What we know:
This protein has nine helices and 14 strands. The chain is α/β, with parallel strands linked by helices. 29% of the residues are buried. Helices cover 25% and strands 24% of the residues. The chain has four domains: 1-40; 72-276, Rossmann fold (3-Layer(aba) Sandwich), CATH 3.40.50.300; 279-310, no CATH class; 324-363, no CATH class.
Amino acid sequence: MAKVKSSFFCQSCGAQSAKWVGKCPSCGEWNTYVEELIQKEEKQSWKSSSSSTKVANKPKPINEVAYDQEERINTNDGELNRVLGGGIVPGSLVLIGGEPGIGKSTLMLQIALSLVEHKVLYVSGEESEHQTKMRAERLGIKSNNCYVLTETSTQNIFKQIEILDPDVLVVDSIQTLHSSFIDSSAGSISQVRECTAELLKFAKESGTPVFLIGHITKEGTIAGPKILEHMVDTVLQFEGDRHMAYRIMRTTKNRFGSTSELGIYEMSGAGLKEVSNPSQILLSQREEVLSGITIGATLEGNRPLLIEVQSLVSPATYGTPQRSSTGFDAKRLNMLLAVLEKKRWSQVGCSGCIPEYCGWTKD
């Protein structure tokens, strides 16, 4: 009979402890440790037991390692190719996080349907087959190589993977999966870590790229242990206001490309549309010249962006004026203004002097 024991895990960072503690020694958070049952079993490979026994790896000189230049998979989405560094790397594990309703499932189903030359398995643990079909009909993309599987058990998923042998795997979402090797509920710290480890092993051994959709916490970080972001190859953050039409995809980690690239989408009734020229939506189309408006140029990755900054100044009713910003961090704004004021004072006059002697006035 398998030996069953319990352990305590931090819900913030995923640290493990043999007993309950009030303050996590790793991240310093209070009252984050929860008890979970761990079932220690002999773990098998993601392949079935009928497969041949795997031979243990042996060290070899790096010059003798066989290496063939593998071409990246074109996603037919210019913005996603940009943030991934040129396309999907075979055998990579990509994690996509974002707020509820931001469009993560819509984007991944849209990508799965657009890869008409590749066999894609879309595993949904949150929606039924009929709901996924309704979303696909709304997108209006026809594909015969996109297969839908409604399953949450990793063992059953791997059985279907052996039968289908897909080229790309999409999991929606990692918090809904559960493994029989861990005796705890789906979405817990140990389940998320174990399921990700099994999918990582599958991706590296088979060379199949895997996309994982992840939930986020109220603080905006990806739910689950912090080790989840260390295990995957690429972490994408899908941001934006649900009440606005535009979405931004950022790369916070990428082992195969740059982390400074941005992907911009526009949410519409037919899915997410690429925004190839972001400067056009960032600038207001006005023919007349207005005061209080300036245009600044910035560089995000390899793409230049033109951003319009609007300022409004009015007399303060009270003695202390108030500064507020929209679309920019207020604390960062105050810090920049303090630096600019200090720079201005050092150029027009010295602090501590008498204005009548040097002729300097504040105005």
